[in-house]
Amino acid sequence: MIDYAKDLQEKYYEANAAVYDSLHNADHDHIHNLALRHIDMISDALGFQTLLDVGAGTGRGVSFMHDRGKQVRGIEPVGAMIQQAEANGVPKGLIIQGSGYELPFEDSAFDVAFECGVLHHVAEPHRVVREMIRVTKRAVFLSDSNRFGQGRLAVRLLKLALYKANLWRAARFVQTKGKMYTLSEGDGLAYSYSVFDSYEQLAAKTQQIWLLPTAGPNQSDRSWFHPLLTSTHVLLCAFKENPGFFNKPAY
Fold it and tell me: What pTM does this model have?
């Protein structure tokens, strides 16, 4: 089933590589463009210079960081997307073909690994996150969806309750008739995912986690549960060491 779903996803990207940016990157204030600006500012503040974009697609993240003087590489499983990235102006060789499940880099090869909207497209996101942790020295950034912030409040609470009771996968199995994924023209093959699914995995390997909402709530939606139950997309920033400016004395 996983291999079949992977083939479907690759065919979607191969067929849509030329128009992918018009579908997913036309807006300057797109959620992932906002996340990239956050990642860039944090990297500047903390001196992160070497970055890896996991699931680089048509080069949005690689271009953004390269244009700002960072040493950035990308990895992308679909050759057509890499070709489109190079057609978009990404220097040849900055993005290589490969899988997030097995990153072809040494341990601690980069200061930072980040992904933008990738984990809700993979069947086993914990494997990708494990690899991102392995190849980084300092931080991991996840810019992705948050199922618990999507839908009416009653639906959000139900999803959270099912997740906490370890019943979410069973409910999703029934909902998708065993596939565990959905298909759409706009997003291809997608799984139900939240950055909070990866929280405990990252918390076990890092010193501090920040959560920055990139699709903020309406004024009426703000609550103590922000961003868990209010933001449809979140940037999770996991630091392997406490950010240095928190350790400076106050004057």
Answer: 0.92
